[in-house]
């Protein structure tokens, strides 16, 4: 699955962590203390992601995402309601060049703040 991560997602991980992609994934696997969830549609793996106890959420998509965007958006809207029952706000930092992430986050109601160095802080608040 890791070999199928979208190139823009790989670049975003490298930009955010300052590590080569493979090293960043290894670091996540070794140090991440929360569950990592696999997102599937039928037999297709669309990505994987997770959240922490403060509302920081993350998602990395595979090349299969491009074949199932509408299904992903439908699932995402439903799952967003689950997350926003638990957290008042979900958020994280994304790379401004990863346009697919920006598009689906806008669809989910995210607001963005430019924090410099091609990075954006996104937030999705309960009730927005």
Beta-strand content estimate: 25-35%
Rg on CA atoms, Å:
14 Å
Secondary structure tally: strands? 6
Q: What's the number of helices?
A: 4
What series of H and E elements makes up the topology? HHEEEHEHEE
**Biggest β-sheet description:** 3 strands, antiparallel
Alpha carbon gap, first and last residue:
34 Å
Mean pLDDT: 92
Order of strands in the sheet with most strands? 1-2-3
Proportion of helical residues? 25-40%
Q: Which parts are unreliable, with pLDDT below 50 for 5 consecutive residues or more?
A: none
Judged by helices, strands and strand pairing, the structural class is: alpha+beta
Overall body shape? globular
Summarize this structure briefly.
The protein is of the alpha+beta class and 128 residues long.
How would the blueprint of this fold be written?
Layout: H1 7-17, H2 21-31, E1 37-41, E2 44-51, E3 57-61, H3 69-86, E4 89-95, H4 99-107, E5 111-116, E6 119-125
Antiparallel strand pairs: 1-2, 2-3, 4-6, 5-6
Task: Walk me through the structure.
With 128 residues, the protein is α+β, with helices and mostly antiparallel strands. Helix content is 38%, strand content 30%. The chain is built from four helices and six strands, in the order H-H-E-E-E-H-E-H-E-E. A three-stranded antiparallel β-sheet has the order 1-2-3, with no helix packed on it. Strands 4-6-5 form a three-stranded antiparallel β-sheet. A hairpin with a 2-residue loop joins strand 5 and strand 6. The longest helix is centred in the middle third of the chain and has 18 residues. The radius of gyration is 14 Å and the shape is globular. The mean pLDDT is 92.
